[in-house]
Amino acid sequence: MRITIRKATAADARFIAENVLRALHIEETDEQHIEHLAGISSREDTLYSWRNATIALCDGVPAGLMVAYDGARYRQMRDITFPMIRMYVGDDYHSMDDEACAGEFYLDSLAVMPEFQGRGIASALIQEMFRLQKEAGIPLATIAVDPENDTAYRLYLKNGFSKNGLITVFGTTYDRLERKA
């Protein structure tokens, strides 16, 4: 099995949409929702833009997705994205904690297709995030993780993240993990 990593393109919008929904544990994946999010992913100015996405391939087959970006752009992209996904986030996002800010490279979404899990793909994507972080000259990598998601939590700890506080997003409190460059 050979894992390769590549930047996404606008043509990957549907794959991005499907896997952002998977990463967010949104089970409602009817065609209308996928197409709507694919439209958002095909833009250049949203959180889930193809410009923020990296795809892992397993023997040439798309197997996983990472969405990560400079936290300094978070608020601007959030204010464009969240009104477009109101069906998932509601309208009360203005008062929630910012998931990321300047000085952070934020891992927004990470998903591996079920048939490819357990093969090191998630770790390969995280290592690519660290490379992008370093390339951007950003000193801190961050993520919000559900403390009850043992599999994800172990993955992030194994890849050098450590807990540094809490963050509340959409009414749910997550552990804020970070890794210094």
Write up what this structure looks like:
The mean pLDDT is 92. The protein has helices at residues 13-23, 31-41, 74-84, 86-89, 121-136, 150-158, and strands at residues 3-7, 53-58, 61-70, 104-112, 140-145, 162-169, 172-180. It has 181 residues and is of the alpha+beta class.
Largest sheet: 7 strands, mixed
Task: State the separation between the terminal residues, measured CA to CA.
Answer: 29 Å
Shape, principal axes of CA atoms: globular
Number of strands: 7
CATH superfamily: Gcn5-related N-acetyltransferase (GNAT)
Which regions contain 5 or more consecutive residues with pLDDT less than 50?
A: none
Number of domains: 1
Tell me the helix content.
25-40%
Known CATH architecture: 3-Layer(aba) Sandwich
Structural class: alpha+beta
Write the H/E string, N to C. EHHEEHHEHEHEE
Q: Order of strands across the widest beta sheet?
A: 1-2-3-4-5-7-6
Rounded to the nearest angstrom, the radius of gyration is 15 Å
What is the class in the CATH system?
A: Alpha Beta
Q: Provide the CATH topology.
A: Aminopeptidase
Question: Quick check: average pLDDT?
Answer: 92
| Portion in strands | 25-35%
Work out the helix count. Answer: 6
Q: Which features would summarize this protein structure in a list?
A:
single chain; 6 helices; alpha+beta; 181 residues; globular; seven-stranded mixed sheet; Aminopeptidase
What's the quick description here?
This protein has 181 residues and is α+β, with helices and mostly antiparallel strands.
SSE blueprint and pairings:
Layout: E1 3-7, H1 13-23, H2 31-41, E2 53-58, E3 61-70, H3 74-84, H4 86-89, E4 104-112, H5 121-136, E5 140-145, H6 150-158, E6 162-169, E7 172-180
Parallel strand pairs: 4-5
Antiparallel strand pairs: 1-2, 2-3, 3-4, 5-7, 6-7
Helix pairs in contact: 1-2
